[in-house]
Structures are given as structure tokens and as C-alpha cells.
Design goal:
Largest sheet: 4 strands, parallel
Distance between the termini: 14 Å
Number of helices: 10
Order of helices and strands: EHEHEEHEHEHEHEHEHEHEEH
Number of strands: 12
Strand content: 15-25%
Length: 286
């Protein structure tokens, strides 16, 4: 069997930074409890290791349970400003692991909202990043999840306002372009801010090249990872066989019979899990 890797895959800069900040906080907590607001990343193995070191994962709606002066890590997705204010009132030590690209989107929405422009954000309404960015918006704000919503939404009365279009950093580049074209046909006062992380495009393009060379693709990543799900959807459309797995134990039996297997991984997948999958494929006959 020949195993080929996508040229770009695995931990992105923002996720790697968040994990490193969490590890540093756990090592230097001076006896204080250390919390993460929501799962730090979408990978159960990494989360389990951090929990064993003392990381407490708590949801944003449970923030009242956090003790005063605790250490609180803001995950890469970021949070809304009211969450930060609540933590400051508790005198918590805030470790801001918000991805710099997400932070830039937050500041952009805050700035344009202050100028009374109308801000349109494309993304998943239930995703932590989107919820956090939306918290920086004013009253002139709309969230669009897909092309269908973009075509149906009514923006009567906006001809006098500047309209700003931006996106969740892991949103589908193809879907964003379709939505952008819909709004370009509706408004002359539209400014498009392509805030999709380049790593998203790079992973997608690397996967498309990989699909041309293999019999099947294994997409490694958490079941709740948005960018991993999109990689899997691309693999399904462009390869004869594709599977979304979380670990070496999830590899479908058919893949062990293939001559060429491709491997890619979401932005929250560490190198060790990728290598575990590769090693199991290589040593299956032993």
C-alpha cells in the first residue's frame, strides 16, 4: 500500500497557539483553577490530555460557576465582549487564545457597526466563532448561513447604507463566492471583506490535488469540527471513497485493501493522531 499525505493538513496556527497557551497556563497556574470557555479545540484526545493536567471545560452559559480570580482561557473561536466583561468583574486572569484572524474579524465588525454601516456575516449561527463575532455587532447586522438564505433575505431600505460582507474564517470559499455574487447583483454600495483563513483554502486545494492520485481519502478530525466536515464533503465529491475518522480505530476495512490511500486532517488534529493512522495502515498485516 502507498500512503500519500495532503500538502497542507493538521494543526493550524490559531489552534496550535491555543493549545500551547493552555499548556503554559496549566503549568504556571499558581494553585488557581484553570478553565476553558467551551472545548479548547475539536479533538477529544487533545482535550482529554489537557483535562488530565487540570483543565476545566465550562460552557459560556455557565460562567457564573467560575470562581473569582480563576484562570480562564478564551479559545481560538473567541467570545463576545460581554463575556470578557463578566470575567473581568470576577477578577479572573484572562488568557486570550483567540485566533488573530478571528480577532481581526471582531474588530472589523465593531468598527463598521460604530460607523452605522450594515454588516452581513456568513457562517454557522451555532458556531462559537460566529456567536462571538456577532456580539461585536450593532443593530444593523444580519447572519447568512448559506446561499438560500442570501437569496431570500429582504434588505429593503438599505440603499443609503454601506453594506459590509464578511465571513466565518472556516466558511466554504465556494459558498462565500456564490453569496458574494448574489449581493453584488443587489447592491452597488457593497464592500466585501474576505475573512476566510487562507489555511482553509490551502487545505481544500491540497485535498483536491490528493483526490486525483488515490483510491480513497481518510479525513482525520473531530466530529464537531466545521473545517473537518467541509474537507470530508470535498473528499466525498472528488474521490471514489472517503471516510471521516477521529482515530486509527475508525479506519473502514475497505481502506486496508486499497493500493493508494490519501490522508488529510482538520485544523484541530495533532500530528501524533495522523501518524497513528498512517502506522496502522502500514502495519495492518502484522
Amino acid at each position: 500500500m502507498e500512503i500519500l499525505f495532503a500538502n497542507v493538513m493538521g494543526f493550524c496556527f490559531g489552534v496550535r497557539r491555543a493549545v500551547e497557551l493552555a499548556q503554559k497556563s496549566l503549568n504556571e497556574n499558581n494553585g488557581k483553577k484553570v478553565y476553558s470557555l467551551g472545548p479548547l479545540i475539536h479533538n477529544e484526545k487533545v482535550l482529554s490530555a489537557l483535562k488530565e493536567k487540570g483543565l476545566n471545560i465550562i460552557e459560556e452559559n455557565e460562567i457564573q460557576k467560575i470562581e473569582s480570580e480563576s484562570v480562564v482561557i478564551i479559545r481560538a473561536h473567541g467570545v463576545a465582549p460581554d463575556i470578557i466583561r463578566n470575567l473581568e468583574e470576577k477578577n479572573c486572569v484572562i488568557v486570550d487564545a483567540t485566533c488573530p484572524r478571528v480577532k481581526a474579524s471582531q474588530k472589523m465588525v465593531e468598527r463598521y457597526s460604530a460607523e452605522d454601516d450594515f454588516v452581513i456575516l456568513t457562517g454557522d449561527k451555532n458556531h462559537g466563532e460566529v456567536i462571538g463575532i456577532a456580539g461585536y455587532a450593532g443593530k444593523n447586522f444580519a447572519l447568512i448561513q448559506d446561499l438560500k438564505e442570501a437569496m431570500e433575505i429582504d434588505f429593503d431600505g438599505l440603499s443609503q447604507k454601506n453594506i459590509i460582507l464578511l465571513s466565518q474564517t472556516t466558511f466554504s470559499p465556494v459558498e462565500f463566492e456564490k453569496i458574494e455574487n448574489v449581493f453584488k447583483n443587489k447592491f452597488t454600495n457593497l464592500a466585501v471583506m474576505n475573512t476566510i483563513c487562507p489555511a482553509t483554502n490551502e487545505r481544500q486545494n491540497a485535498l483536491l490535488e490528493l483526490c486525483k492520485k488515490v483510491d480513497g481519502v481518510l479525513v482525520i478530525g473531530g466530529k464537531n469540527s466545521a473545517n473537518t466536515k467541509r474537507l470530508f464533503q470535498t473528499a466525498l465529491k472528488n474521490c471514489r471513497a472517503a471516510a471521516h475518522i477521529q482515530s486509527k480505530n475508525d479506519i473502514p476495512a475497505d481502506f486496508f485493501k486499497m493500493e493508494k490511500v490519501g490522508i488529510t486532517a482538520g485544523a484541530s488534529t495533532p500530528d501524533e493522531i495522523i501518524m497513528d493512522v498512517k502506522n496502522k495502515l502500514c502495519n495492518y498485516d502484522e
